[in-house]
User: Fold this.
Amino acid sequence: MPWSQQLTIQMGNSYAGQLKTTRFEEVLHNSIEASLRSNNLVPRPIFSQLYLEAEQQLSSLEAGNRADNEEEEEEEEEEEGSESSSPPVSYQVKPPPEGCCTTDGFCQAGKDLRLVSISNEHIEVPSGFLLVGAKSPNLPDHLLVCAVDKRFLPDDNGRNALLGFSGNCVGCGKKGFCYFTEFSNHINLKLTTQPKKQKHLKYYLVRNAQGALTKGSVICWKGAEFRGRQSSTSTCSSTLFQLPESSGLSGSTSSEPLPPANPSAPAGTQQTAAAVDHIPSTAAFSSAVYNGKESPKQQLMKNNLSALTRPSVLGTLTNSGPPKKRHKGWSPESPSSTETWNLQLNPQASNRIKNDGGSLSSLPHSALVGPASSPMVGSGEPVSVPDNLLKICKAKPVIFKGHGNFPYLCGNINDVIVSPLLYTCYRNSQSLSRAYEQYGASTIQPISEEMQLLLTVYYLVQLAADQVPLIEDLEQIFMRSWRESHLSEIRQYQQAVPQAFPQLPSPITPVTSAQLPWLAGLAASSCNDSVHIIECSYSLAEGLSEMFKLLIEGKLIKTNYVVIICASRNRAIDSCIVITGKYQARVLSESMLSPSDYQKEVNYQLVTGKVETLGSFFSTLCPEGDIDLLLEKFYQENQGHISSSLSASVNKPTAVNGAGTAVCTSYEIERHQIRPFQLAVAQKLLSHICSIADSSTQNLDLGSFEKIDFLICVPPSEVTYQQTLFHLWHSGILLELGLEKEHLTKQRVEQYVMKLDAEAQIKFKIFLQNSMQNPHTLFVLIHDHAHWDLMSAMHSLYPQTELSSGLVDRLLNCREVKEAPNIVTLHVTSFPYALQTQHTHISPYNEIHWPSSYSNGVDLYHENKKYFGLSEFIESTLSGHSIPLLRYDSSFEAMVMALGKRFPRLHSAVIRTFVLIQHYSAAMMAVCGLSQMKNYTSVETLEITQNLINSSRQCPSGHGLMVVLRIPCIPLAAVAYERLYNVRERLALEDNFEIILGNPNSGITIGKHFVEQLKIWQKIEDVDWRPQTYLELEGLPCILIFSGMDPQGESLPRSLRYCDLRLINSSSLVRTSLEQELGLAAYFVSSELHTEKAVVNDVLESDPEKLSSTDNEDEEIVTEGSTSEKRSPMKRERSRSHDSASSSLSSKASTFCTESSPPQVLSNSTEETTNNYERQKQKVDKGAQTTVSKHLPPVTEQLDMKQNIKSTQVSITSSSSPPFSSSSSSSAPAHNSFILQTSQCSMTKASKQPPIVFLPKLVYDIITSTDSSGLPKSSSLLPYHSVMWASSFRPLMSKMMTCTEQSLYYRQWTVPKPIHMDYNNRSEGRMDTFHPRRLLLSGPPQIGKTGAYLQFLSILSRMLIRLTEVDVYDEEEININIKEEESDQYYHQPGDMWPDLESFKKMPFDYTIHDPKYEDASLICSKLQTTNSEDKSKSRRQEDMYTCRQTTRMRLSKYAAYNTYHHCEQCHQYMGFNPRYQIYESTLHAFAFSYSMLGEEIQLHFIIPKSKEHHFVFSQPGRQLESMRLPLVTDKSEDYIKSPTFTPTTGRHEHGLFNLYHAMDGASHLHVLVVKEYEMAIYKKYWPNHIMLVLPSIFNSAGVGAAHFLIKELSYHNLELERNRQEELGIKPQDIWPFIVISDDSCVMWNAVEVDCSGDRKSDYTWTERNVSLKQILQHIEATPNVTHYALIGMRKWSSKTNSAEIKEPFSCCHVHDFIMLNVDLTQNVQYNQNRFTCDDVDFNLRVHSAGLLICRFNHFNVMKKQIAVGGQRSFHIKSKVSDTPVSISPAQYICAPDSKHTFLAAPAQLLLEKYLQYHSHRFFPLSLKNYSHPVLSVDCYLNLGPQIAVCYVSSRPHSLNISSSGLTFSGLLLYLCDSFVVASFLKKFHFLKGATLCVICQDRNSLRQTVVRLELEDEWQFRLRDEFQTANAKEDRPLFFLTGRHI
Assistant:
């Protein structure tokens, strides 16, 4: 901390303080040392430095340092003392009284004092008191409101404040605090230093227009002439010692605490020494030490600094910037003070605008309220504004306050306007951006005040006479200048790691204040007096007085800008800039009006009749007398016989239609169709929604929604509303979403679209109620045209005019919408900039931008239409393009400028409107034959009018063009409508074209005649039909007067030909405003063009990566292919063709057509002619011979201008002589064919080319000029009127930026103003300010966003339905025709609920496999096959097994099993994901049992969540797992399932259906997932609340057989344990429940068939199938009588093709699969084969049956299996062991000869065996192929030998049930891992065909030989050495060995 501040703190309020000797010595030492080193430095008295009572000595120190703090609103530095060698004396606060409130922001009585809380409350202020804002160090973002006696506050000069204090608490009302210390305790300031009113009373508080209390000016404590004037050395020179003027160290007004311009670069080495003389030698090379205290904007490397040196006096001073300047002006007592204070809206707000009420930084129409002419607050001697200033100067001068003090203005102050805009710009440009903080040290200085002013002068000098200065331009100039001057440092910092003390850069000599006036004068000398410099020596007052004097004397006629500079050697400069140019002053003053003030002003001028002077002036212009008289005369003359040419055009359509001949066929209204672009955008939106749902935040649970509902919010424009209804109706989306039934009515459609007007709240409330009542419906809230009303609900600026203002904030940002988990908000806009600020609600990841049509020159989406947007319009203005689509009208502009000077009090909008109406009136008269009126219109207006009136004549059906005349101000639009309507009536044109007043608040009104025409064209029968959207006006010849301050999303038809924007509010230069006006003309042009090929190709090749609103991401920049880049640099200049006629020519417009030419000729001359004429005239006119010469025939080049125009015109209109035809085709290729085919429908032509747009010159210049980045200047404007730039020090946008990068740019560099709805959306942790369910769709205007979001709703709905559906296998049972017995024998009645045990025992076992998944498995023969089974040779490939199986899509029922993606309230706890519950803890338990067949002990592990421990028994002392609890057979309960369910699974941690909560209908059940060891962690993560049984690691590569084997063995072992445990409790062993359920992980739903046997005969029955819960099925099966006598119980697999024969017998004795109940007690001695990968269930079923046990299938129950594309059997991939490259290996390579060099495979031997036999068993059993009557004998196992080979299963076990084999001869014998039960005598019972083959499979070669010997196989079988094989495994993988032989 700077020592001077510490000293100040210790000294208190200039009270006597104790001096510390160290401080004294330091000051003394520095002063003496400084005087020794310099000849002309006189030391100040030492004691004056230490005690602050001397008036001026150190006031600047304190002012400067305090300024820093005030500016950043951070007082912490004073308390921290971080950079000081000795800490400040801590201030001891008296402890607060017992029981009082000590909360920050509240007084001790507990009342809230924070400005934000009480700004709207009425506060009693005693007379003589003022409300001020105090800052508390604990609440940096708040001001505390206090009432203070103004005698104790300073005046404007910072003086005359009485010592002491008197104040009241506004919270509790306590009065009479006489000490600030006591007061600060009462308001809980909680200071660590002694309270000082100077430090803590910061701001005056004032009431704004709404009466709310807001922060006003800074309270100026101490010395006005020093306030903030000090720079690096001039500060110290004015306090400690004088530096010579020549030192060149610049003065700087830094409004942020920043080091000024170049303190590191003094003009000479001796000065350098002087400047740093006090710094110890170690720091002398460093400039960092200048930054004496830590500045909030530039973090110092403070540790290094304090290690080097203790900051000394100079270090402190050099950094001092000014305090916040309070604007000078009326003293607070003056009556108008409140008005003026409102006016400023705190213009000096800090750059970071923490609590700022409305900073004007770079704000074009600076939200000023109150009279805009009120001056700023001033100081010093007053300046009198002369009377009659406006009358004499014809304009109100605009004074921009610059640097320093500004004097009082008095006198005729209504005739001047004072603006803080430039002041703010200067101040912002002094604040280095946070982006440069990284450079660490203070070498990088802001630009100096002198340099700022000089650059401003340079900028003004180069402005043309018709240009207006732009703040953005100036900011960019400052930025560029600063970057260039600091390029070396920036590069140095960017390249190297920033060192603590970089070397000083080479000195750049700064501009001194003495040189400034001279340099400014030099710069201005070249500009022909356009900029005038006034230098004054004492104060700005004398300069202003002189300027007023010159104005009155008329000496500044040619001058547009007066720069007044007051530079004196001992302080920084004062400056201001006065705009005296009439045009510039008018534009700038009008730009300060807010939109509502602009409307009010215009309205006032219309109502009070001020415009009548304008009307009378127009009358005097026309030599033939008043226009109205001319019109009346014309009307009288032509009343009987309307001009023949016109009557023809009116009567033609009906006549022609009646005759049924040539009718125009080109008319078609676009029907709703989805273009590829729209589909792509809809899919992008959908993927964003899915990614929100997929994120771990669980902000959107898509799985819980069943349907979609939506509400579209549109601005309160009737046309937009109807247009949205129209789109919605024709899209069919309501029917598709199932929201409405057929026969839609308009009333029903209206429920889904809401106009944001007064009635919106009712509709919105219904929407919210629906969303609350339907939690399973996803509601999409679509906010269309989302940039329209972003007003904060709290800051509705003009409530009396805008009822709907702030509605968006009130409705869409309400708590209910934000918190509803089933509402997604989608903002849709063409201008997203206002929603992309630092405080936005929308995450950058949730932005969707319209895709680009081109990428690398490739057309991404084949569309038959080409979009023309802003970038294409701009491209058309470049030279080389044949038709510039953007133009301005110079004669119109010249007239407006002239009238502006004549009528200075009229708003320019009024003048422009009246001039344009006049032009249109004159043009209409000229076209109707009053040719003398051509002199009173412009060429452009004449072209528009002529083409409009003639358009309907050129089409047999009378189709015509639309002209849009944009008049933003509604009262002016009404005046224009009335006038044009009147002129049209007088000219008898009422049937030729319509004039429509488009008012946003009302519908469209058009004449009956035109309604009938539209009905004929659109084939509409409805009698009452009226057009309700502009789109329905397709083909109607009309002038649409489009009013309303902003367009609100209205679309225009394709017959639009001219978009006349000459009247748009050009003073409101905001990017959104400009782009949305130009967006009206955005247009789709058919790509299949013939006539316009040349033009369109030219334009089509324009650079796709424009940063207009049409640029995009996903695209590379095209440079090679774009024509614009290919052109030579010379031709890159803009063609001059847009200026249609120079003002000097406007009066000569009569040359346009010779006086004698009859009206017919004129009316026939088409628009193309005009274009030609106009282009050639312009080019000649502008002297652009070079560009035009190649277009014009040689003859014309020699003509002078007038002849050229006349001859060209005449030739084209009358003769179309060959030379001119060719010239026309070359200069305007688009039009050559049109000239020849004048009868072609003009509407058709219009729809094939974009409209022509006329702009004000000012806007035209901004749109078509580019800044240094190559972008249109409009893109660097402020993006939206309710946001502001975060800093002037921002980089330029780049031409290469995609939409996403643009968004990030605005998110970094813009902040919302307090009136913006996002203003309060900020918090320290940035991420949580984004709303998770908010999306933003942006795309160019009129490109089809409505269609895209409607399509999005459609595909979102389809996806939700898809989420509630699953693909289940739907296959008929196979082998139905192979039945064991005659089908007429039935064992049960169809309606029996349970099997009868005795009947069931009699049922034969059906060996045949019927499960369709075994379609390519070997048939099992049970008796002699007399009939050949169907040929199953059409076997599928292994991979096709899953893809080719038939599935059906089924809607999930409420009893479905779910995977991990399902979340709903009911099963959150079951799943273990609910945040309300603790994370489910689990414990790992080992469970071991021995198993003799494996010859070792098996150790399994259970993972048991705490919530599931009640299912298990643990030993008491050690909590060892003892057993799993089993119920009793006799237990009966509705609430739980007795059988534990085991689900073996692999590779399906996400997709396995393990959530059985709904399937079990909430019943208690025990569910165990059986997983492999390596998958344990991932399953545990996804299913934290499930019990896991982890298989030993040796089974990691095993198949499903191992899992089934271990489940069964574990369950039997557990049964034994439970029997022993419960036997001690007196329960019999046979009473323990012996069943378990083994279920596949893909069983999704279960069904029950209900049979109705109420028919007359027993055979009559009907049946229905319904979805039931698994609980119901299991409880039904568990309740089966004698259930323990069944070994296996299963159910059918569902099929939609089930026939009644299959369920006639309710129970079957056959194979069961997929979902079985297994009796582990009965099957104790029957094992699953733990080696098996496939068919292990078939193998087990056969073993169970052969053991004489019962297998029962309930045919009335079935299970549906979901198709899951991952995991399961597919997780086994057979690949080579040698190389990692995935090479497909055919099954033939799965076996090889032993000891061969065959490639070994990395797969289990058993898997290779099974796969080989499935596909290639015919190599072992050639006789068996398709020989179904001679099957292969398979002993003790079933192996799948493929569908073409039948097998016969026999068991070698004694007493086993086998089929009778007598009479069967076998074609082969398969012996697989034979055990000791297989003996030679057993095999000798079977008979084999001669040549039958044998295959013996053993674990190793040794046991192979032993088996051959033991079974005496060589007696009957012949073996050869080469018949031995093995699986293709390496030795360590234990291959299986085969031996084959032939039967002898």
Notes: Residues 811 and 902 are 48 Å apart (CA to CA). The chain has a mean pLDDT of 77. The longest strand covers residues 1750-1761. The chain is about 30% helix and 15% strand.
